[in-house]
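Onboarding guide, step 5: your first structure request.
Type a short instruction followed by the sequence, for example:

Predict the 3D structure of this protein.
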Amino acid sequence: MAGAVAAGTVLAIALGAGLWAWPFGGDEASEPASEQENWIASAPALNPAETSLTDAHTEELWTHSLSTEDPAYWFAAGTVVIDGEEGEVVLLDTETGDEIVRIPVEGEVQHVVEFLHEDTPAAGVFTQDQFVAVTAEGDDQSWDLEEGEVVRAPGTTPMLTTEDGDTSALIIGEEDPVETEGNPSYISGAIDDSLIQVIPGEPRVALLPVTADEDSPPASEELLQAPTDGASFLRHLSVGTGHSLSLWEVDGEEYLVVHSLEEEPGTVTSAVAAPDEPEAWQVGRGMQLAVTGPYAFSLETGELTARHPDATFTGALGPAALAESEGSRSFVVDGTQHYESDRVTGYSEDRIALIRRPDGTLAALSGD
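The system replies with structure tokens like these:
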């Protein structure tokens, strides 16, 4: 069995913001989701297109001049441009190219993240000195960071992790990081509206309120439903953005199983045969899809949306899952695979394509 590890083995995996190790294996969840033979999810066969993703995008909405050295990132909130000369983070409206907000940033940019602020799309820029956040409505805030602190967003709220492994939520409107109070025996994997902790070696997750606000969801501990009768839990892979991804074994074969952590927490939304080397999923830009191996899952429903027969999905832009094979890139949208002609850096739900031209210029294109 590919990737199988005996129960009690200690496995180190990247979950959320840190590298963790714990024993796993052998636990079974009661009340399986299905006792039927068709419990494994399937996706429609891919339809190869004769066109590139941007062939039908003939209307140029706007352009923005950039140096080839200045990075730009598309998100649901807009297009984040790092103005290296001015030392500023700029958020552009993807539909119009208008500037939404501009805020100074200190230090060299390490990475960018995407999250939600009160259901409003937002983006954040992490440097060794600061975390700078901007929203689609023009709100902004920055937090100074101490040495060794890292900010990531495996869930819908940015999570700050110290060198000691302590976690806090960064919430716009809160001057200081909001410390989270989880169970020290559990592992903090992400923050959505709640702190999400996985329970080592068990098909369980804890959902704990981040603030004492009366609107905060109550604390709970949720059992992850077995995908079918006789399934054994192996380990957690990912949590956050309203779902969890974990590895299970059925009749000697391994399966990736997606569970909801929002409506009816712990219920199965998808189960698929695991690739040879199961890994955590990657949340795509736009927060519409999550991808791992040859699979793409909807972050709205947790359901399987695409399976690539001979390539690995390495990311997603809005509704477009990005596949890379032998140095070429292609995009799967609504079951159709398009090749890439222009360098696509963003693709919105409204089918606006953001491309980066060889001279560094950003261009937004609209299509049918």
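Each response can be followed by summary notes, for example: The CA atoms of residues 46 and 335 lie 5 Å apart.
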